[in-house]
Specification:
147 residues; mainly alpha; 2 strands
Length: 147
């Protein structure tokens, strides 16, 4: 097996024909071309697909950035949503109650019934944890009596 020497060069602009001729005169031959361009939606802060994901609602990144921890106001919103759903309240009523209690969305915007509908998959994911907590029974009853 004969060994080949390889180099990788980065350019600010495409190399001209003279550069390519000089490299070939030195014994190099091109074996690949790698193309790069600005990704669509660039500037959004999102990295390559699959590397950066939104932190699930009800959680936040810890101060040391090593793990996720509960975000108290979002967790309270999830508990309230779950209690109101258990009380068979419509999504519009749930959104109104979240807003009345000052539990706004992560963006700071008020909740709408569409927003509540869109958070249902996250609520399903976190419900077993909420339902098994010691405080759930009393807090659910208290919430339902207050509404």
């Amino acid at each position: 097996m004969n060994s080949a020497e390889r180099i990788r060069e980065e350019f600010a602009s495409a190399p001209g024909p003279e550069y390519l001729k000089s490299k070939m005169a030195e014994g190099w031959r091109p074996v690949a071309i790698e193309w790069v361009r600005q990704a669509k939606g660039a500037g959004t802060g999102l990295g390559p697909k699959g590397l950066k994901k939104e932190v699930p609602y009800g959680l936040k990144v810890s101060e040391d950035c090593l793990y996720l921890e509960e975000e108290p106001s979002e967790k309270a919103a999830l508990k309230l949503m779950l209690a109101l759903i258990a009380g068979d309240h419509p999504l519009s009523k749930i959104a109104s109650e979240l807003n009345r209690q000052g539990l706004h969305k992560r963006s700071g915007d008020p909740w709408s019934q569409v927003d509540v509908f869109n958070i249902l998959p996250r609520l399903i994911e976190v419900a077993p944890e909420i339902l098994t907590s010691d405080e759930w029974s009393t807090s659910k009853d208290r919430i339902l009596r207050a509404v």
